[in-house]
Write the structure tokens for this entry.
Amino acid sequence: MAKAKIIGTGVYAPGDSISNAEIVKLTGTTFPLDTLENKLGIYNRHIAKLRGVAETTTDFATKAAQAAIANAGIDPMAVKLFIVGTDTPEYISPGSAVVMQGRLQGKEMMTGCFDLNASCAGFTTALDVAARMMAGDATLEYAVVVGVYNMPAFVRSDDGFGNAIFADGAGAVVLQRTSDDDQSGYIGGQLMSDGTQWDYIGIYSGGAKKPITHERLDSGEYGLQNLKPLPGDRNIKLWPPLAKMLVEKYGCKVEDIGHIMFSQINRSVILEVMKLLELPLEKTTTIMDRYGYTGSGSVPMALHHAITEGKIKRGDKVVLIASGAGFFVGANLFTY
């Protein structure tokens, strides 16, 4: 059987880094510094609009994809599938992936493109979809999967939580179809969901149910809205059993994991999860200290840094787990 392997990675974040002290000055809002730094682990972030950078979702995605394609050493014209995982698209329609394809390939091609919205689990879900598509289609030699986040574009000016936590960024991988005897390749994934939690946090206006009107703007019913408090221990309870389920599903054990990465929103949660999994901290990577929380971009951005910093080597088994509002979860297992 054929499978997909990662042959290139790339990241992009717009403008100069913004520290915690500067975000207060730029937005005029505050968030408890002790929680931000000592619990969440966030010290810096990149936000295009606060730096006067005229870029949005598709710009971030395209630049991360270009970096990954260059890292893989392939011709962008050879890519036959582009998937963008995001819940902060450039437009409701057309999708961000097809705009990105136009920029990268510049003409009509026999190239598949689509966006995948699984909230912050968009990249891990898209990676699973792409790998399965490539395994079953011999014409898909190369694919690019991007996770991208532009939530600051939807954060209201008076939202201290949103201004402090959310940031812009994108991460991308290039996949190559390879034979089963290659030691590297995608092994499998696990998706889960709980749609009863759809009304906790999200962008509820601007779609078909609640089009933007002057009345909604005046009442504050726009942009990112926190309707209910998220359970603080949700990922601590969820991620360890999910990691165990995933590796056991494919005949592996937790101790076989060479590296594991999670949604980059709360460093203290990740440390607790590693303790519960009885894995050393050297087997995970956190990047929220430099990028803030970049949603679907956070996992592929962490993956890029782990690979380029030598924490992940060829032959290592890698697990990715991401959770997103709604409630979506996506997990991947592959051999790098």
In short: Residues 199-226 form one domain. Residues 213 and 219 are 10 Å apart (CA to CA).
